[in-house]
Design a protein that fits this description.
Elements (H helix, E strand, L loop, with lengths): L1 E6 L23 E5 L8 H12 L7 E4 L8 H6 L5 E3 L3 E5 L2 E6 L28 H20 L5 H7 L7 H22 L5 E5 L29 H9 L2 E6 L5 E4 L7 E5 L3 E8 L4 E6 L4
Parallel strand pairs: 1-2, 2-3, 3-4, 6-7, 7-8, 8-10
Antiparallel strand pairs: 1-11, 5-6, 9-10, 11-12
Helix pairs in contact: 3-4, 5-6
């Protein structure tokens, strides 16, 4: 399967800094995946602009449009309404020659963290010396991922995870509620995948604890979240445990590719205004991409 993928173009009706007309799908692509934030807002002018973008490809090339937080559901449904060859990708599962494409996007603009690491002293990288925060954030993300993987695979309880992560007794209730939220999203995604194998998961949110889900904020010593991993924990755990071959995501505006190895899924984010051509064949273990951005 050969696919043109874009994410986080953040097109604006009055904008002139991006040449929309320069974007073309190579003649040999099988589909176009939009991994969210095609536009910067979800007003009527933005819907019209997004439709203009989708019409560049459909109906000759199928388009799957997954909503981001800036163009959250149901905006893609409005964009593709009545447009042959185009589909809203939110909670979509579609069989194809190379496996199954599953889409999962955003239903709201504001995205508060399900598990706010800065609310728990043992998980807050700001407690480390400034020069060590990035390392501390990586170490903490590994611990969180491991502890919650044990929970969703029924190898441990949420209370066990609280103990493993040194959550203070007075904060355990808040932590357990966060774990419940992760579990609920994980269960929802498992139902969406429905036991399928060789899945290509197209999402807007980035998986947690990857090379491209870093927090980008800057600020004072007290507020800077330097190096904090901010991706979706449930998404990362589903990709690890449910036969996912690859995830294609956006949101963080940070390019990154975490190579699949030893059963680990391929994970790709093309970054801000990302546009690329992907070759995907789970049966052959093929996952490769080239930049296709003309701007």
């Amino acid at each position: 399967m050969r696919v043109l993928v874009c994410n986080d173009l953040h097109l604006k009706p009055a904008g002139s800094d991006y040449d929309l007309d320069a974007i073309e799908a190579p003649g040999d692509v099988d589909a176009v995946f939009v991994a969210g934030d095609l536009t910067h807002r979800d007003g009527e002018d933005d819907v019209a602009l997004a439709r203009r973008f989708v019409e560049r490809f459909a109906p000759d090339t199928p388009v799957v449009y997954v909503p981001g937080n800036h163009d959250h559901a149901p905006m893609p449904e409005r964009v593709v309404d009545g447009l042959a060859g185009a589909t809203s990708g939110h909670e979509l599962a579609r069989e194809c020659d190379a496996g199954t494409v599953v889409g999962w996007g955003c239903e709201r603009r504001s995205l508060d963290p399900v598990l706010d690491q800065t609310a728990f002293e043992s998980l807050d990288p700001r407690t480390a010396p400034r020069g060590e925060r990035r390392y501390a954030a990586d170490e903490t993300a590994d611990r969180i991922e491991g502890a919650l993987r044990d929970v969703v695979t029924d190898e441990a309880t949420a209370s066990d995870a609280a103990d493993a992560l040194d959550i203070a007794a007075e904060n355990e209730g808040a932590f357990l509620r966060s774990v419940d939220a992760v579990q609920a999203t994980y269960d929802h995604l498992v139902d969406l995948l429905d036991g399928r194998e060789d899945v290509v998961l197209v999402t807007h949110l980035s998986p947690f604890n990857t090379s491209f889900d870093r927090h980008h904020s800057t600020g004072t010593r007290e507020t800077d979240l330097e190096g904090l991993h901010t991706g979706c924990i449930a998404l990362k755990l589903v990709a690890q445990t449910q036969g996912v071959f690859a995830t294609v995501s956006g949101h963080s505006h940070d390019f990154g590719y975490d190579i699949g190895d030893g059963g680990t899924p391929h994970m790709l984010n093309l970054g801000f205004r990302g546009l690329g051509v992907l070759d995907i064949d789970p049966a052959a273990g093929t996952f490769s991409f080239t930049d296709a951005n003309p701007c």
